[in-house]
Design a protein that fits this description.
The protein has helices spanning 2-17, 39-45, 106-109, 244-257, 274-279, 298-302, 321-331, 397-400, 425-431; strands at residues 49-60, 82-96, 101-104, 112-118, 124-126, 128-133, 138-142, 152-153, 164-169, 177-188, 198-201, 213-215, 220-228, 239-243, 263-264, 267-271, 288-293, 309-313, 316-317, 336-343, 346-353, 355-356, 362-363, 374-381, 384-392, 408-414, 418-421, 439-445, 448-454. Helix 4 (244-257) runs parallel beside helix 7 (321-331) and helix 4 crosses helix 9 (425-431). It has 4 domains: 46-142, Beta Barrel (Thrombin, subunit H); 152-256, Thrombin, subunit H (Beta Barrel), CATH 2.40.10.10; 263-356, Pdz3 Domain (Roll); 362-454, Pdz3 Domain (Roll). It contains 9 helices and 29 strands. A hairpin with a 3-residue loop joins strand 26 and strand 27.
């Protein structure tokens, strides 16, 4: 019985593999002792997957309640915050071989003072953080290296439950490791925070896999591994990856603007459940139910109405309200999207130009040391364009240089690069790329323009 079961399993495996993509020298015959193998694909993809090592400091908050800290004295470690060094390990994926761009998770590099990239061929390079987005857990790094291999990107919107997956990363610091599985589910969310639209897979993912690659059998990137459900601390076959289409959009915004310009539709709503579907006489059980359209929003201008059921975006099916929210937010402000919807039992489509979500900003230390301690955001109001200072930490380099919240940086002058009028944060990042010397900044404050020297 055991032998029969084994033979049946082998037969099923052979049948499944006959439909897989054909690689050069892919062995599929059992007669001459060759065996089906993912090795040819892994050999092509593995140079694009890297290990990420980080060092930094983090603040540990005191566990002593505030009313009792007096009794421990001002210099007692139990009565104040402490900074402690830390080290961490993760994974990353090379997406541009010429420019050395590497994608990883924000939580891998968060608070890191030093980031080291280890390639599969044994080379090591210091990495520069270009930008990151905590809400989607995506970060973009850059290394200066030659002979890099970039991974090919798939279209994650075409994924189906049951598609084969391969996870490549650096679990527990062991070095590059490969595991396999399938797409277990799509459009998953964990805690409702951020903009989650995860691919769920049962390919083994553990600590250290974060930021690594989830690929299909063509060796194309379908997602960035980012989280697991692990009640016992280890893999239980429930892992999550950020879809590559979302990663592409976020990366393009970070590289172009120096920040994520999050798009916003301007609706409230929820999931289309069985009860809602019956109330509206709908056959479909998938979609996003619109309960309210905010005045003067992108949705209102496009003609969306309360009671609409959004079922697709740019021709791709929308399964849940959370999926719609994540795709809209990561599509980028100013982007135009086509929404398919059901209204009063009839299908129709509307074109929407997304607004920009308020309050998006980046850490200025990623742009220039003289700006450390400030938070910056692109600014455009009437005829005034530039970079807004949204916050400044006390006693930081930015504060010492004179920057204040609500300042608008209109332009900068560099010693060897001339003067430039700013239009957005991305331009400021580009102008200061690789420049660490002092520069002059033209700043608008309380309707007055002042010149500041930033050192």
């Amino acid at each position: 019985m055991k032998k029969t079961s084994t033979l049946m399993s082998a037969a099923v495996l052979c049948s499944a593999l006959s439909a897989l993509p054909a690689y050069a020298d892919w062995p599929i015959s059992f007669g001459d002792k060759e065996r089906p193998s993912l090795a040819p694909m892994i050999e092509q993809v593995s140079p694009a997957v890297v290990s990420v090592s980080v060092e930094g400091t983090q603040t540990a908050r005191s566990v002593i309640p505030e009313p009792f800290r007096y009794f421990f004295g001002p210099n007692n470690p139990h009565g104040r915050e402490q900074t402690r060094p830390f080290r961490g390990l993760g994974s990353g994926v090379i997406i541009d071989a010429d420019k050395g761009y590497v994608i990883t998770n924000h939580h891998v590099i968060d608070n890191a003072d030093k980031i080291l990239i280890n390639l599969s061929d044994g080379r090591e390079f210091d990495a520069k953080l270009i930008g990151s987005d905590p809400d989607t857990d995506v970060a973009v790094l850059q290394i200066k290296a030659t002979k890099l291999t970039a991974i090919k990107l798939a279209d994650s919107d075409t994924l189906r439950v049951g598609d084969y997956t391969v996870a490549i990363g650096n679990p527990f610091g062991l070095g590059q490791t490969v595991t396999t599985g399938i797409v277990s589910a799509l459009s998953r969310g964990l805690d409702g925070d951020g903009y989650q639209n995860f691919i769920q897979t049962d390919a083994a993912i553990n600590s250290g896999n974060s930021g690594g690659a989830l690929v299909n059998l063509d060796g194309e990137l379908i997602g960035i591994n980012t989280a697991i459900i692990a009640p016992g601390g280890g893999n239980v076959g429930i892992g999550f990856a950020i879809p590559v289409n979302m990663v592409q959009s976020l990366t393009a915004q970070i590289l172009e603007y120096g920040e994520v310009r999050r798009g916003v539709l301007g609706i409230l709503g929820g999931e289309l459940n069985n009860e809602t579907a019956k109330l509206f006489g709908l056959d479909t059980k998938h979609g996003a139910y619109v309960s309210q359209v905010m005045p003067d929003s992108a949705a209102a201008k496009a003609g969306l109405e309360a009671g609409d059921i959004i079922i697709s975006m740019n021709g791709k099916k929308i399964r849940t309200f959370q999926e719609l929210r994540a795709k809209i937010a990561t599509r980028g402000a100013g982007a135009t999207v086509q929404l398919g919807l059901i209204r009063e039992g009839k299908e129709r489509s509307v074109t929407v130009t997304l607004n920009e979500a308020p309050g998006e900003n980046v850490q200025a230390s990623l742009i220039h040391p003289a700006l450390e301690g400030a938070k910056l955001s692109s600014y455009a109001e009437g005829n005034v364009k530039g970079v807004a200072v949204t916050d400044v930490e006390e006693r930081s380099p930015a504060a010492r240089n004179g920057l204040q919240p609500d300042d608008i940086i209109l332009g900068i002058s560099l010693m060897d690069r001339g003067r430039a009028v700013l239009t957005d944060l991305g331009q400021l990042r580009e102008l200061l790329e690789g420049y660490e010397g002092p520069f002059a900044a033209s700043v608008l404050r309380d309707n007055n323009t002042i010149m500041m020297i930033m050192r």
